[in-house]
Amino acid sequence: MSDPREARGLDQRFYLVAFSTLVIKECNRFLRIWLQTVLPPGISMGLYFVIFGHLIGPRIGTMGGFDYMQYIAPGIIMMAVITNAYSNVTSSFFGAKFQRHIEEILVAPMPDELILAGYVTGGVCRGVCVGALVTLVASFFTDLAVHSYLVTFTVVVLTSTLFSLGGFINAIFARKFDDISIVPTFVLTPLTYLGGVFYSIDLLPDFWRHMSLLNPILYMVNAFRFGILGVSDIPLARAFVVIASLVVVLTVWSLYLLKRGVGLRT
Amino acid sequence: MHPAASEVALSLAGLRKVYGNGKEALRGIDLEVAAGDFFALLGPNGAGKSTTIGIVSSLVRKSAGTVKVFGIDIDLNFSLAKAQLGLVPQEINFSQFETVQEILLNQAGYYGIPRRAALARAEKYLTQLSLWDRRGDVSRTLSGGMKRRLMIARALVHEPRLLILDEPTAGVDIEIRRSMWEFLARINREGTTIILTTHYLEEAEQLCRNIAIIDGGQIVEHSSIRELLAKLNQETFVLDVAAPLPAVLPASDFACKRIDDHGLEVTLARGRKLNDVFAELSAAGIEVTSMRNKSNRLEELFLRLVRENVDHE
Fold it and tell me: pTM of the predicted model, to two decimals?
């Protein structure tokens, strides 16, 4: 048997191989079951475009200077990115806990940071992949001329990172399958619908407009809308500060939980 | 690579574990396993074997004490210490949706082995464990024995210096068990240090050179198998005889008990010779056709040590 200390020090190459293995495994997982993971959001978001954009939209008229269909498209794409990034990590990480093959990773010489990065990158990949599919579906219904590719791409990556981290924390605490559906159903979905996907918060009375500012999803939807259409209810810089701050907070929390072994090590 | 004779593969000092519910699973374990050893860690259910293994493999957090793997303290260089270890856990713990080969390639990747080298290693160990033909099959379709062998192949794919097996042959048939014994004996000869926990004491007696018995979270015995067996002060044999035995057995120096018409139980104190038994039986006209131990020798000692530990408490 070779001596691992001689054969390969735990150098950057080691970490790169371990990280890419985890990311490829995560991507293979959701691509292998694409009928459950990638296609459904394309269909359900397509229905949003048909019902809200095509059938109801013309009666609403314009919003923010754009056709209603154009106005809601960025929010609908972002909704798909958020839910898919989140559910990818919850289902994968909790599934690994449930089947106990998470032990493969816990026993391996992978630092906690690398484990977190691997799962989050898997979530980001699914978020981006589904986001691209929904964008393609949207292009059949409306013209989406991108205002800023840099802003659009950065917001998608940051948002999917944030919700992958959220999904990771949910999966760490989850003890049964119900626990990974509670947050998406009772927290994520309401916040997304109330996060300015279908309307501008300028339409709301003052009280609800101020309440809406407490909803982090509002910042993501508006930053993404700025990237696509060039309009936003929120100043772009403020949106980025909110999203980036939340990413930092959830990263620190996730690493703390991993280092403490919460839900993983007895 | 064969380890140096004086090298210590695993060193545990003052290892304690108190679970959140207040249960003290380990009460100060001190143990050293030499490099190249085939070591048995035995104990009744709930004795602390799996907790010990869990701490060494980082699945369980210790409350106190130190763990060193080939001299590397897991608290000081966690990753490097873990790179030396391979673990075959008690329960099946691979993804039920991945293929046999995927499981090995992923495991190799987690240990930093590049894809090409991982493919070669996967082929090597799947072939050695007779699973290469099933490499494309989803793991859940394998039989119980194949799943056990897959866990061994997975634990070896990064070629660890210390392999820990927690009841690797539980629930597998005798043929597969024996082939696994041969395989484990071979990789031990090739230099891998092996720590084995098992409830099959025959397995420990056949494979292992040294042994520790753990009970109630403490080591109650730590010696070589040979030394331990030497402590056995009597042994009981079952003899099968050709002709029906008389209703009353002839007077004997040995403790003889009639089991049935063709069976006899003889208990021999240490130092007495089997030849004397046969001579006495021949003189009485009793012809022995076969003989076996009434129970495994290690099993007798194990039960005695565990019973003594309970009495002390």
Answer: 0.83
